[in-house]
Design a protein that fits this description.
single chain, alpha/beta, Aspartate Aminotransferase, domain 1, 2 domains, seven-stranded mixed β-sheet, three-stranded antiparallel β-sheet, 12 helices, 38% helix
Length: 359
């Protein structure tokens, strides 16, 4: 079996965890602070704030910017549901804009038409490891006085015009086991704004600036030193992991037949959290079954756009037709691209796909 994802945990991570366990300082200690500093350097920002997950990073970032009831946040419907749910957690309402069919990312050309007097922020999602076309989004945000909250949960180390994901606004990352790097579970917020960094730190720790003095309603969104120790070791390997993903993706794109391989714009570094292709002609589900029968892991990310999810339709009253997102949901299929793949694995993946699509 070739898995769709495989966390690579080595002796460095194991030793780092044991050092934390032996130290007796397990929660929100020196390893968390060191991880935050290293992650900020990698991203090219002044501050990084560790949280318990990518979802809590998004939730915290929204609250830190004062987004709440009555506000609207523009985002994409073609992503994991946590992107939109975090907006609901803050009491605001997601406003969905369709995707660019070439990249699967939000289409900046449709954002202006979605802005209303209630719009407070734009949340671009850098999906599958490819950054959104950020220049027009930055221009819109500046012109309209809007906040940018980057959902970079799938794009650790990705670049747009030589700038890292998470450096254009307030960035949010997930450190779930299947990501390009992991802390087993965790999240990270990145920002150049000292005030936002301070607000995030207060929100994640029960509203405290000093122990047992609670300035506001906060949450327990802290990261443990155990998770931070794993994250630090993984961060040191991120560039190498990403290089392997890019090389594996290049091999797949060069050898697959009868599918639409992922676009890599010339001004971006796509780090391939997922290698997501399109399978046209109604053959996606047949190929999905074929791959699984042959022991090749694969997945559909995502089979139902958020605006068509039962909760959003039945409970929140969304009634939208976003044709590019809906079409993509019927055609996308993701193949293994992780660094643990061997050359034989890559050849097997290609041969198995082409048995269905190459005729």
């Amino acid at each position: 079996m070739i898995p769709i994802a495989k966390p690579l945990i080595g002796e460095e991570e194991k030793q780092a965890v044991m050092e934390v366990l032996n130290s007796g300082i397990l929660a929100q200690g020196p390893r968390v602070a060191a991880f935050e500093e290293a992650f900020a350097r990698m991203t090219g920002v002044k501050y990084a704030i560790a949280t318990s997950s990518g979802t809590t990073a998004l939730h915290t970032a929204l609250l830190a910017h004062g987004i709440g009831p009555g506000d609207e946040v523009i985002t994409t419907p073609f992503t994991f549901i946590a992107s939109a749910n975090s907006i609901l957690y803050a009491g605001a309402r997601p406003v969905f804009v369709d995707i660019d069919p070439r990249t699967f990312n939000i289409d900046p050309g449709q954002i202006d038409a979605a802005i209303t007097p209630r719009t407070r922020a734009i949340m671009p999602v850098h999906l599958f490891g490819l950054m959104v076309d950020m220049d027009p989004i930055v221009e819109i945000a500046h012109k309209r006085g809007l906040i940018i909250i980057e959902d970079a949960c799938q794009s650790h180390g990705a670049e747009y015009k030589r700038r890292k994901a998470g450096s254009f606004g307030t960035g949010c990352f997930s450190l779930y086991p299947t990501k390009n790097m992991t802390s087993a579970e965790g999240g990270m917020i990145t920002t150049d704004d000292a005030g936002i960094a301070d607000r995030c730190k207060v929100i994640r720790q029960h509203g405290m600036r000093r122990q047992y003095y609670h300035d506001e309603l906060g949450f327990n969104f802290r990261m443990t030193d155990v998770h931070a120790a794993i994250g630090l070791a993984q961060l040191n390997k991120l560039a190498r992991f990403n290089e392997s993903r890019i090389a594996n993706a290049q091999y797949l794109s060069a050898h697959l037949c009868g599918v639409t391989t992922p676009l890599v714009p010339s001004d971006c570094e796509h780090v391939f959290h997922q290698y997501t292709m399109r399978v046209p002609g109604g053959r996606r589900d047949a190929l999905l079954s074929h791959l699984k029968e042959r022991g090749v892991g694969c997945g559909v990310y995502y089979p139902v756009p958020i605006h068509r999810q039962p909760f959003y339709v039945q409970q929140l009253g969304y009634d939208l037709h976003l044709p590019e997102s809906e079409q993509a949901a019927t055609e996308v299929l993701s193949l293994p691209v992780h660094p643990a793949l061997s050359q034989n694995d890559l050849e097997t993946i290609v041969a198995t796909v082409n048995e269905v699509t190459g005729a």
